[in-house]
Write a structure and sequence with these properties.
mainly alpha, elongated
Length: 185
């Protein structure tokens, strides 16, 4: 059991680092390609698709979708969001921001639930709990901006992605430190 827990903890460290790196790369691309609408549309679609894929892989590594119902639901929510973003991109930036807002609320709550469930086994989940809660709050903010007068841009979504990167990176580092301490105790 100890080996399995150590292996899963190692997986989470790697998983959190990869999620952080992807988000940082996404932000860099959003800033770099800010004026190119077809590349921005691609970035807007790829982000929830990546989240669906990442949750699917993580759930499978940790016992499967049946053993991880919050992640299974997150895969569904993120997949539907990907499709909704494809439709919204052809409509307006307001619609895109509203879709991202709804998704941020739902995926944030599901992430929070997943982190609470993992708390006693892996530690460092307090960061993911904060991330899930902040995601839900950010979603509400995005929805409020989507009904505002100012036309939204991808830079209205970039801070959300940035906080996600920060939380994933902090969780990964926290797990690295915990593993180091455990190995040298």
């Amino acid at each position: 059991m100890q080996n399995q827990s150590s292996s899963q903890s190692s997986w989470l460290r790697s998983y959190y680092f990869v999620r952080a790196i992807f988000s940082i790369a996404w932000i860099a691309a959003a800033i770099l390609f800010g004026g190119q609408s077809h590349l921005i549309a691609f970035l807007l679609v790829i982000y929830p698709a990546w989240d669906a894929f990442a949750n699917l892989v993580d759930a499978r590594v940790n016992g499967g979708l049946k053993a991880n119902p919050s992640q299974a639901l997150n895969v569904v929510v993120s997949t539907i969001t990907t499709l909704a973003v494809i439709v919204a991109v052809t409509n307006s930036t307001y619609a895109v921001l509203a879709v991202f807002g709804i998704w941020a609320i739902l995926s944030g709550l599901l992430q929070l639930y997943t982190a609470v469930r993992r708390w006693r086994h892996f530690g460092a989940q307090w960061v993911m709990i904060l991330s899930g809660a902040q995601s839900a709050l950010a979603g509400g903010f995005m929805i409020s901006r989507s009904i505002g007068a100012a036309a939204p841009t991808i830079l209205d979504i970039a801070p959300y992605v940035g906080f996600g990167a920060f939380y994933f990176l902090l969780s990964a580092i926290w797990l690295v430190v915990a593993a180091y301490r455990k190995a040298h105790a």
